[in-house]
Amino acid sequence: MNTIAEKKLNETFMAGSCSPANKRLFSAVVSVNKQIGRRFFRLELEFSAADAEVLANCQPGQFAQLDLSATALPPAEAIPENLVDVASRKILLRRPFSFADVTVKGDKTFVDILYCVVGPASLRMTTVSAGDSVSVIGPLGNGFCVPEGKSITLLVSGGMGAGPLLYLAKVLTADYPQLEVIAFAGAKTASQLPFEARLDEISQQLGFSLGEFAKYGVESIVATDDGSAGFAGLVTNCLTEWLDRHTLAAKDMIIYSCGPEAMLARVAEIAEERKLDCQLSMERMMACGIGLCQSCAVECKATDSSETTYKLCCKDGPVFNSREVTFSL
Amino acid sequence: MKENIDISVDFAGIQLSNPVFTASGTCGYADELADFMDINCLGGFITKSITLKPRKGNATPRIVETDSGMLNAIGLANIGLDAFIEEKLPVIEQLSVPVFVNAAGENIDEYVAVVQRLAAEKAIAGFELNISCPNVAKGGLSFGTDPAQVAEITSTVKKAVGEKVLMVKLSPAVTNIGVIARAAVDAGADALSLVNTFTAMVIDIETGRPVLANRTGGLSGPAIKPIAVHLVNKVYNEVAKDCGIPILGLGGIRTASDAIEFIIAGASAVAVGTANFIEPGCAVKIVEGIEKYCVRKEITNIKELVGSLEVK
Ligand SMILES: Cc1cc2nc3c(=O)[nH]c(=O)nc-3n(C[C@H](O)[C@H](O)[C@H](O)COP(=O)(O)OP(=O)(O)OC[C@H]3O[C@@H](n4cnc5c(N)ncnc54)[C@H](O)[C@@H]3O)c2cc1C
Ligand SMILES: Cc1cc2nc3c(=O)[nH]c(=O)nc-3n(C[C@H](O)[C@H](O)[C@H](O)COP(=O)(O)O)c2cc1C
Ligand code: FES
Q1: Cβ contact (<8 Å) for A294 and B221?
Q2: Which of A225, B49, B178, B207 is the most exposed, having the fewest neighbouring CB atoms within 10 Å of its CB?
Q3: Which atom of ligand 2 is nearest to the CA of A294?
Q4: Based on the structure, what is the number of domains in chain A?
Q5: A315 within a domain of the structure (yes/no)
Q6: A106 & A191 share domain
Q7: How far apart are the CA of A96 and the centre of ligand 1, in A?
Q8: Which residues of B are catalytic?
């Protein structure tokens, strides 16, 4: 396996070191809002030619803030039991969502977002339909960066965390054909895997390839906590087993991960134990997403002391080096 | 159309091109909003609270949304005076908008230290004294609820500001805001800003715990607007009107009509806080909306509107 040419890296990804395209407020038009699983949806937004320039330099790992405050509630029967109480709460703040894909078709740019219904805003999001316009602020934050000299990248997602890793898989395979990319996708149970594949297609076999990753030529491994699809157990256990079975040099590998905080903490631990480079996409409650409010603090180790400092998830992240983050779980 | 309309404001001697500020803690230190609006189109800009030493702030979650509002418990996280001077002041020097530095501290000496270091800076128009932050263990709100302490901190800091304008930011969490406002004015405040946030709590009923790591936070946003309008009107009537001290009114402003309510209640100028998070360029739209209102109501000078509340 070849290593990646250093020059190309520096041109393409420089998390934290280069300031990505300026963020802006856009009015995007919904082209698709489709249910892909019990609580999972894919939203596709269309941006005008005039906006394309700003979005052209988007990086995987970056995100956008969507204003869903003026969006209607779904009919009562479509509201999940556990959200009945919170459904009618008024939405004030925007909500952050990662780019799951950015594509250019002709003079239009399309942005994909994979989302999960967890509360009032994401519930309302399900009711927007093709032709509606949505106010979007983006692109925000710093994306994943590819350090020099890696030949194998492992993408580890939990639940909805798959979104940004799909986009990363696309960019990695397009820009670095020599690179081997393997995706690990975990969820509590098969129906909570945020993929369009029909459940009966998700084989019990380790090594099943999810269509979304397969289209980029990326092998994917599914893990479910209850064993209803793929590996039975936590995706982090699946990862350690895989690492045990493959004797690869740590310096050749890098892990990219996105998912629940407990999973990220474990991924960081695995990386630490095995001396692997690892980048994590973190989530925090965000009021602004653009560095104004200091609400999205991520506790990090200070470089020059044993103290910790807070970095901003929206501005310094959401992608962090696993070595710098202090988890308190 | 706009030629015969004057919306400029004399704010304690500072000439503002219009009455709209952005509020402390919701617009960064200097140019963070520049991708969304021309900051120089604002009437005034107020920095995040600056303390003598950098502050990490509170653990997360630091915010939670509520109906028509949000709670924050940031804990005055800021880069500290030295980094502010080194990194942000040069940016502020490039701005033409009058900039106020919001100063905070754990004791009076810290407030004085911040103000003293910056008092000679040409780029800074004045200071806003934050004696009303509900989210820190020491200082903050404790200075703002006792008239004697308000007087002491105001008069002490006043000696350090030199020629600069000293604005004192009041907490709404007091029994009688008029008494606090009076104490600040008598001790030398050149202007008053109100309100800061209301101490509040949100409980997660599944865990039985408060959502915020700090337990309580400050409520801001549209939910507090009617209370803030009332408090501005009260302070205007009881204190500001007679002594000619301008009020900066804030709390839940999202639109020009919100801003105009505050002005009618007695505010000479207004500040936009939480709304910056939702629509980062809205302050400039509010300026335009105020202008349109003046045209429609045939108001030639915005001064006519200040405190024009009709009570029959
Ligand atoms: C950078 C970033 C990227 C994200 N990308 C995606 C994505 O691609 N797809 C997706 O479905 N979701 C994503 N999220 C999470 C998404 O923003 C939240 O699910 C959404 O804000 C929930 O809003 P709500 O009103 O539906 O629920 P709320 O009532 O706001 O929240 C429901 C539950 O989710 C928790 N929660 C909400 N927001 C967050 C958060 N930011 N971090 C941790 N816990 C949270 C709350 O504590 C609560 O328990 C992302 C978050 C961040 C910070
Ligand atoms: C996230 C956040 C941070 C804030 N930080 C500060 C601060 O550092 N200093 C200060 O004086 N006020 C601070 N405030 C208070 C605002 O300046 C303002 O007084 C309050 O939010 C009410 O206005 P609003 O409803 O328009 O937001 C903060 C408010 C919010 C929401
Ligand atoms: S969300 Fe406001 S600073 Fe990050």
Answers
A1: no
A2: B207
A3: 1
A4: 2
A5: no
A6: no
A7: 7
A8: 133
Which chain B residue has the Cα nearest residue A307?
B56
Cβ of A293 closer than 6 Å to ligand 3, yes or no, is yes
The ligand whose atoms approach the alpha carbon of A317 most closely is 1
Global confidence as pTM: 0.93
How far CA A196 is from CA of A25, A34, B289, B301, in Å, comes to 30, 10, 47, 61
Q: Do A93 and A195 fall into the same domain?
A: no
Ligand number nearest to the C-alpha of A96: 1
Among candidate residues A253, A289, A291, A283, the one with its CA nearest the CA of residue A270:
A253
Give the structural domain span for A46: 4-140
A97 and A164 share a domain?
Answer: no
**Domains of chain B, earliest start first:** 2-57+75-198+221-304 (3.20.20.70)
Give how far the C-alpha of residue B173 lies from the chain's centroid of Cα atoms, to the nearest Å. 15
Instruction: For strands A277-281 and A319-321, give the pairing.
Output: antiparallel
Q: What angle do CA B224, B170, B283 make, to 5 degrees?
A: 55
Over residues A96-126, the pLDDT tens digits come to 999 999 998 888 899 999 999 999 999 999 9
Distance CA A72, CA B39 (A): 34
A54 & A127 share domain:
yes
| ipTM surpassing 0.90 | yes
